Amino acid sequence: MIIRILGICGSMKPGSSTAAVLRMSLQASTLVGAETNFYDISERPLPFCDGRSEDSTYPPEVHTFKNLVKNAHGIIIATPDYHNSFTGGLKNAIDLCGFDEFEHKMVGIIGVSGGAMGAGNAISHLRGVMRGVGAWVVPHQVSISNSSKMFSGPDQLADPMLEKRLLKLGKDVVKYANLFANGMLEDE
Ligand SMILES: Cc1cc2nc3c(=O)[nH]c(=O)nc-3n(C[C@H](O)[C@H](O)[C@H](O)COP(=O)(O)O)c2cc1C
Fold first, then answer.
1. What are the tens digits of pLDDT across the range 8-27?
2. Residue 118 φ then ψ, to 5°
3. Which pick of 56, 104, 130, 171 has the fewest CB atoms within 10 Å?
4. Which fold has domain 4-181?
């Protein structure tokens, strides 16, 4: 079975550095045989989740997004650190979904911060939210600090260790997504 991995980027900034590193992890997923897709909320904005009882009345973009999440076996989520957490745009995208879309999905998380502290809090908060929608988050994660210095050239990371971590994440999500996709984890 071909494993489908969806990338979701929490940045809405054109030329986002978070989107660039997410694409690197997705590339690693393809190297181990996965099919990948990328949902960029900056290019395909989603309306606010308002908690309505009839989801079908949301505009088509919402259904496109929900279907992409639902049809994926694994998801790599990358977010910039905004005030010590992940972005509001990303939270809104997740709020438009729920167990129906995220349950039994393997998730990998990347966080990118402008400052020196890294995006550990954003990643931890996102782990908690993923539990709330029934997803499984892989232990490996990537926190990037000093984002303005992370590239030494176009698509070239200054730190080779960082590149290694991003590639491992892309491969890990595929490896563990296989467990559900191939029925190796039973569900009651
Ligand atoms: C509203 C806002 C809040 C931010 N808060 C933090 C923060 O708390 N800590 C930090 O290190 N960087 C913070 N940053 C910087 C971003 O994390 C950083 O610029 C990141 O690389 C943006 O990623 P992007 O280029 O993918 O949008 C903030 C940026 C914005 C716009």
1. 999 999 999 999 999 999 99
2. 80, 180
3. 56
4. Rossmann fold (3.40.50)
